[in-house]
Amino acid sequence: MEQHDVVVVGGGPAGLAAAISAYEAGSTDVVVLERDVQLGGILNQCIHNGFGLHTFKEELTGPEYAARYEDRLKELGICCLMDTMVLDVSPERVVTAVNTDRGVFSIQAKSVVLAMGCRERPRGALNIPGFRPAGVFTAGTAQRLVNIEGQMPGKEVVILGSGDIGLIMARRMTLEGAHVACVAELMPYSGGLKRNIVQCLDDYGIPLLLSHTVTRVEGKRRVEAVWIAQVDEKLRPIAGTEKRYPCDTLLLSVGLLPENELSRAAGIELSPITRGPVVDERLQTSVEGVFACGNVLHVHDLVDYVSQEAAMAGRMSAQYAQGDSGEGSAARGIPLVAQGGVRYTVPAFIAPERMDQKTTVRFRVDNVYKNKFVCVYLDDQRIMRKKRQVLAPGEMEEVVLKQEHFAERDGVERIVVTLEEG
Prior knowledge:
Layout: E1 2-9, H1 13-24, E2 30-33, H2 62-76, E3 79-81, E4 85-89, E5 94-99, E6 103-114, E7 118-120, E8 136-138, H3 139-149, E9 156-160, H4 164-175, E10 179-185, H5 194-201, E11 208-210, E12 212-218, E13 225-230, E14 243-246, E15 249-252, E16 256-258, H6 261-265, E17 290-292, H7 303-321, E18 334-338, E19 342-346, E20 349-350, E21 358-365, E22 369-378, E23 381-391, E24 397-402, H8 404-407, E25 415-421
Parallel strand pairs: 1-2, 1-6, 2-3, 6-17, 8-15, 9-10, 9-15, 10-11, 18-25
Antiparallel strand pairs: 4-5, 5-6, 7-16, 12-13, 13-14, 18-20, 19-21, 21-24, 22-23, 22-25
Helix pairs in contact: 1-2, 1-7, 3-4, 4-5
């Protein structure tokens, strides 16, 4: 069995940033395992701009953003095994993988970074009545067909779900000559960034139907129409509000799920809310020496944040590989408690004695809020209060905790992140 310091599972934006960071932190024996034939992950099909504003201070397309990291990876000479599927990651950090050149092989890693990304929720998870006709695609599949394969999924389109991919595909399909009748969203708020609602829907006159959902798909061989109804506060269709939309294509943008089969098999504790690993301030999972970052940890809205988070995971994995194991697993730390409209926090635990000078805590809210204060408490003592005019589930928020916050406070039992009235 071969041995390496750091093994990174996934060659998308998170995996690339983690590998580079681990190398630059002193672990030069880094291996990236990627199941595709090229690096970059989902960025390769995201040909629109808007990437890199935080990282590179300029607007880049997805492939351009990925290329910056790929060039750095090659410059450092980091080993990348392409077309390689990881089959298992054991609690002892033995990574088992397979490819056509080597067959099944195993690597004993000193530390592992999980960066497998996420996948789209399929139609089967929605229980929409109707047959299984051609013309029903996830938005990401349609994006790949148009941007990489050069194929149009259809000409008359309805989109269910207002996630960022769905919003972007509404614009993309319009630019390619299709007619997008509407974007229907089950919730009373959009799941995407505000800028995407403006640039992808408003600028092209595409209606966004909030509190609406598809109740039926017509057609046996090919989609002929969909029925859309308004829903009540319990998300149940309201009788008499149904409207028929003739179309040949239904795109689904109904959520992303972190790709955590490997994590689950390794015995890693997963959050019931994010469906990603529970991690501490070093982004270490409940299995010691295994770290997680990017969309496999929790779904991000900006790739720049993925890169920042992955750089942290790479640096921590390098430190662990070099013998700095800290104080053990994620279970040993002060728990972060999400309250008052905050859905979750990443990390879920913080140990002040091993944290950096600053630790970024990222979170999402469960509804649209206006004129609220984001507050942080150490037990019952408030240490932070910052005004936010608007908070929305589609946009990630963050607070930065400093080591000095804990300097004069011993025995803190919990850290509370909550929203309060102005």
